[in-house]
Design goal:
42% helix, 6-stranded antiparallel beta sheet, 14 strands
Length: 392
């Protein structure tokens, strides 16, 4: 007797892999199950990820609406009763294989709260299955039916036979997303995209005009020596939340953490796009103001808890920099280099000498056009001519 073709596997291998959008993929996957004759009424595809804030993504298709709902599961979900009492905990943490509950069966074991909810919604059958990746990590798919008799033996056979092909495609989605997220997390949004776009060789890059941000934590050595290491690390991360976090919130690109210093840029648009460039300058200033406001709140909490308060300096400059890959052939970094970047660092260092928290260059003050006060002409270490520096 000739082997009957599995329509789902055929669709996965011929068409399914072409959908980069995971919601769209889930929508078409549901249609592939229906086209194969599987009496499925709801599908939930749960993809676990290597992500700093999110444990996984979920995509739920329901035939009543024929749409896909998306949700994110944070790491705090792992400790919740919703997760611990779900089939996902059994699949992800206990290594369970197929979980099937025929809800219309008088002897059905209602050992997960979700089963009661499904029954109330008119579902008659439920299957939860692991999608096992090459390295052993697991995602999952659940299928529910409203068919009067639930899933047939043929339905279950088609589903089980499809798991291997489905796992490969879901793994590909997870790997692509993980690569994108990790590059964005460790390199920055724009820099990570540059690498994904193929700028991976040493020397790859471009000359750009940008507002350069350089900020530094005051007396960090003293803090590190006098505080418990865990407390100092916690304070350092809160300081970065205020400084680097404000840059990111205003559309800037954090390039490097140099110890407790932050190097960032706000790229300027082409010379014929004055509006976008002016917005970048305004965003850079607002990021600085918001960083100081955040630090005021942090220091209030530190004072209430009898903990040391912190201070920072911020320098802003405008200039042309080389934005690209630098380093050795085996260890690269996507950053900015050039005289303007060095000048921004020197400008920030003057905040200590002049005892003002924010100093900007003459170029930035003129470009921004706001209400700036001249601090005078100063020598910057490593530069020949004096620079006029400004503060608010």
């Amino acid at each position: 007797m000739p082997h009957q073709k599995n329509h789902i596997i055929h669709w996965l291998l011929e068409e399914g892999w072409k959908y980069p959008d995971r919601s769209e993929f889930t929508q078409h996957l549901a249609q592939a199950f229906l086209d194969a004759g599987v009496s499925v009424s709801r599908i939930r595809l749960t993809i676990r990820l290597l992500h700093p804030q999110v444990m996984g993504f979920g995509y739920t298709w329901d035939d009543r609406f024929n749409t896909v709902d998306y949700f994110e599961a944070g790491y705090d979900l792992r400790d919740s009763d919703i997760y611990l009492n779900s089939p996902f905990a059994a699949i992800f943490d206990e290594g369970a294989g197929a979980i099937r509950r025929k809800l219309i069966d008088p002897d059905c074991q209602f050992d997960y709260p979700i089963l009661e909810d499904l029954t109330k919604e008119g579902f008659t059958d439920y299957v939860a299955l692991p999608l096992i990746f090459a390295d052993g990590r697991r995602s999952a798919i659940t299928l529910s039916s409203r068919c009067k008799d639930g899933f047939s033996s043929k339905d279950l056979s088609l589903i089980y036979d499809s798991l291997s092909a489905l796992s490969r495609i879901v793994e590909n989605h997870a790997l692509k997303h993980t690569a994108s997220v990790l590059l964005e997390t460790y390199l920055g949004r724009a820099s990570g995209q540059q690498v994904l776009n193929g700028n991976v060789k040493r020397g790859d890059g471009q000359r750009i005009r940008a507002i350069i941000w350089f900020s530094d934590l005051r007396q960090s050595t003293h803090l590190a020596e006098t505080m418990e290491s865990d407390a100092f690390l916690d304070l350092l991360n809160k300081y970065f939340d205020c400084t680097a976090g404000s840059v990111l919130d205003r559309g800037g690109e954090v390039l490097r953490y140099i110890g407790d210093a932050v190097l960032a840029i706000f790229p300027l648009g082409p010379t014929d796009q004055c509006e976008s460039s002016s917005l970048a300058a305004e965003n850079a200033l607002k990021a600085a103001q918001e960083a100081f406001a955040c630090l005021d709140q942090l220091n209030h909490t530190q004072k209430v808890n009898n903990q040391p308060e912190i201070a920072i300096g911020i320098g802003l400059h405008i200039g042309e920099v080389m934005y690209g890959n630098i380093g050795t052939k085996d260890r690269l970094e996507f950053s900015v280099i050039g005289t303007s970047a060095n000048e921004a660092a020197r400008i920030e260092s003057m905040t200590k000498e002049l005892k003002v928290p924010l100093i900007v260059s003459d170029q930035f003050s003129r470009f921004h056009g706001g209400d700036w006060r001249s601090l005078g002409l100063f020598d910057l270490k490593g530069f020949k001519r004096k620079r006029e520096l400004f503060t608010l």
